[in-house]
């Protein structure tokens, strides 16, 4: 996937965000950062009698859970690696302690959504301050 490097100041956040989301969607992993997919829960973790041996149905459910967990972890790794590969080291240092891809993406979005609004307002102000002198060509 070809995603542009995110500028540390966030000046290209709007383009970066859309290209990143499109690329992750193309891989089938958008659900890892839009909040629609959570880590699968072990179906045997809430058994009341932990001493008792697992039944055949519980063993089958646990095997299915392990398959789902492996798929989920692979998707998480892909999304996290794609984020890490497209952000500067200084940003990576800020987000590396986050738990999952959703938390990482939310942290980046929170930081740069605010910055992109202020950049837009600054550009708007500079545009409003522009004027053409009497002898200049528009």
Describe the structure.
With 138 residues, this protein is mainly α. It has one domain. Helices cover 58% and strands 0% of the residues. It is built from four helices and no strands. It has helices at residues 13-26, 56-85, 89-95, 101-129. The longest helix has 30 residues, at 56-85. The two termini are 41 Å apart. The model has no long low-confidence stretch (mean pLDDT 87).
Which residues form runs of ≥5 with pLDDT under 50? none
Counted up, domains total 1
Sheet/helix structural class: mainly alpha
Q: Residue share in helices?
A: 55-70%
Total of helices: 4
Q: What is the residue-mean pLDDT, rounded to a whole number?
A: 87
Strand content: under 5%
Shape descriptor reads: elongated
| Oligomeric state of this protein | single chain
Describe the structure in brief.
This protein has helices at residues 13-26, 56-85, 89-95, 101-129.
Give the key terms:
single chain; 138 residues; mainly alpha; 4 helices; elongated
Set out the fold topology.
Layout: H1 13-26, H2 56-85, H3 89-95, H4 101-129
């Amino acid at each position: 996937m070809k995603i542009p490097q995110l500028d540390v100041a966030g000046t290209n956040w709007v383009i970066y965000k859309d290209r990143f989301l499109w690329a992750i969607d193309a891989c089938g992993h958008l659900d890892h950062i839009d909040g629609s997919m959570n880590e699968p829960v072990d179906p045997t973790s809430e058994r009341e009698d932990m001493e008792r041996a697992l039944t055949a149905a519980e063993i089958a459910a646990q095997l299915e859970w392990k398959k789902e967990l492996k798929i989920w972890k692979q998707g998480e790794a892909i999304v996290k690696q794609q984020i890490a590969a497209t952000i500067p080291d200084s940003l990576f240092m800020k987000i590396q302690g986050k738990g999952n891809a959703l938390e990482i993406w939310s942290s980046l979005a929170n930081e740069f959504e605010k910055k992109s609004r202020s950049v837009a307002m600054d550009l708007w102000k500079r545009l409003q301050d522009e004027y053409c002198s009497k002898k200049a060509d528009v």
